[in-house]
Write a structure and sequence with these properties.
The chain is an alpha+beta fold. Helix content is 41%, strand content 19%. The longest helix is centred in the last third of the chain and has 30 residues, at 493-522.
Length: 523
């Protein structure tokens, strides 16, 4: 009799969708199911999600995957999800209110007061990360100010993936990466009594989940839930990690000095350090990984793939496939004919490796002889320059592992290798976050003896891009010019933003005037 195949489920609950992925024990993807999620936004800056709807969406994806895999044996489950925000659950285990998400902006004014009175500095001292409006300490105070009964009714704070695991198992727990964004001292790995006192948040101490190892068992599948999902009860569910840290495990970046990048709508560059005292910048996000004293230091630049979408549309190439776009850019020699692109095209400006909300995109070095292909290639090079600056700040050693939609571009990977001088290793399979927590689940279930073995066993095929020494030398010169030109323009960004707003206002006024004139004429 042939034995049933054994699979691991990885669940990845992001801001816009939740996915369940079934993996074989050697990392092959068997089935994927996705369900969209809705974020409710309001004029007061609120960005919220219905926690029950998230659970229902997750259930639907699990049911779909279970149906697709037939009689295969699900050996373990891992969960990751979006981080930060306030996911508040009552003593009865039910949500007290919609989850306030990481991009919630209601606490901006409170954050400014905390920055002025030293409380933001206290958060940074304990966690190693700068405070922002969507982080739990300042956000929960904002919510409690609007609803004084909120903390009276509070049972526990459960981040996105912890809420889902609680629904699956009935167990309340979190991991060090999630706790690092609340009240955890990332140097000691324990909740900070000094931070509770500095913020006047001593009462929150009893409303935070126990911190467990990411690859520990965070409970087993509840019998009633299992029946609804079409699964047997008792399946171990790993504690898991927040999505950015889970991606590192999915890529295999678990050792000290190893780093990885996510090339998407925005960027992400992270490097593991043996301990927090090796952290190199004051604006990076610092997460305890749960692997001893190791921390993940990361920067999240806004310089992402929308720059490529914009230049393709701006050059009138939107109807052409990306394969043709890349061939056009690849035909241009490195250096783009002396054209340099500053890829700060996000309306939100830049946040890493420097903070500049008024940052603006620019082309420099153009003339009437500049060709469209040179403009196009310069955008690829500009993205690589910006990512390289983050890598230099973080002190990466060894190669760079990458994933994300932008990594699908061979040209971008090649240019990044040549600019940075790092060997670029691209994972050739999707669902990196789900793979990361499925890898953790292998250890939780006892199928793999340790995380290193699990990572090696789950690793999919990859492509390697090796830097060309000649092109690297050329690009290092271009990189220095990129930094110098960018820094020379930085003092003028605020005024340039003002000019942009004035021009937009003038255009709106002209449009309104034209509409009024047309109405009078028609009358």
């Amino acid at each position: 009799m042939q034995s049933r195949s054994r699979l691991i489920l990885g669940i990845d609950a992001g801001t816009t969708s939740v996915k369940t992925v079934a993996f074989t024990l050697d990392g092959q993807i068997v089935s994927v199911a996705r369900s969209s999620l809705h974020t409710e936004r309001r004029h007061d800056g609120a960005a919220e999600a219905d926690m029950d709807r998230l659970w229902e969406a997750t259930v639907s994806t699990i049911i779909d995957v279970v149906a697709a895999i037939g009689d295969a044996d699900v050996a373990a489950i891992g969960i990751t999800g979006q981080g930060d925000g306030a996911w508040l659950v009552g003593e009865n285990g039910l949500p007290l209110r919609p989850a306030a998400l990481w991009l919630d902006g209601r606490a901006h004014e409170r954050l400014e007061r905390w920055q002025a009175d030293g409380r933001a500095a206290a958060v940074h001292e304990a966690t190693g990360s700068p405070l922002f409006a969507g982080a739990l300490p300042v956000l929960v105070e904002e919510l409690a100010a609007a609803d004084p009964q909120l903390l009276v009714a509070l049972g526990t704070q459960l981040n996105c993936k912890d809420w889902l695991r609680y629904q699956l198992t009935g167990v309340i727990a979190t991991d060090p990466s999630e706790a690092s964004r609340t009240y955890l001292d990332t140097g000691t790995g324990r909740y900070s009594e000094a931070l509770f006192a500095a913020l006047g948040h001593e009462r929150m101490r009893d409303h935070l989940p126990e911190v467990r190892s990411p690859e520990a068992v965070g409970g087993v599948l509840d019998a009633q839930v299992a029946g609804a999902l079409g699964l047997p009860a008792g399946i171990p569910v790993a504690v898991g990690m927040v999505d950015t840290a889970a991606a590192g495990v999915g890529l295999g970046a678990i050792g000290d000095g190893q780093g990885y990048a996510i090339l998407g709508t925005t960027g992400f560059v992270g490097v593991n350090h043996a301990a927090r005292d090796a952290v190199r910048t004051d604006i990076s996000i610092v997460l305890s990984t749960g692997r001893g004293t190791q921390v993940l230091e990361s920067l999240a630049p806004m310089t992402g793939t929308p720059n490529l979408d914009w230049v393709r549309d701006g050059l009138g190439l939107s109807e052409r496939p990306w394969s043709e776009i890349e061939a056009l850019a690849a035909a241009v020699p490195p250096g783009s004919g002396g054209v340099i692109y500053l890829p700060y095209g996000s309306p939100s400006g830049e946040r890493a490796p420097f903070m500049a909300p008024d940052a603006s995109a620019s082309w420099l070095g153009m003339s009437v002889t500049t060709e469209p292909g040179q403009l196009l290639r310069s955008v690829y090079e500009g993205l690589a320059y910006a990512l390289t600056e983050c890598l230099d700040e973080l002190g990466l050693t060894g190669n760079l592992l990458i994933c994300g939609g932008g990594s699908d571009s061979d040209l971008l990977c090649e240019i990044l290798a040549d600019v940075s001088g790092y060997e670029i290793v691209r994972q050739n399979e999707p669902e990196v976050g789900a793979r990361g927590v499925a890898t953790l689940a292998l250890v939780a279930a006892g199928i793999a003896p340790d995380l290193a073995t699990a990572v090696a066993g789950m690793a999919p095929p990859s492509s390697v891009f090796t830097p060309n020494p000649g092109r690297h030398a050329l690009y290092r010169s271009g990189y220095r010019t990129f930094i110098a030109a960018r820094d020379a323009l930085r003092p003028h960004w605020t005024e340039l933003r003002r000019l942009r707003r004035d021009a937009e206002t003038a255009a709106e006024t002209a449009a309104d005037t034209a509409a009024e004139t047309t109405t009078v004429h028609d009358a």
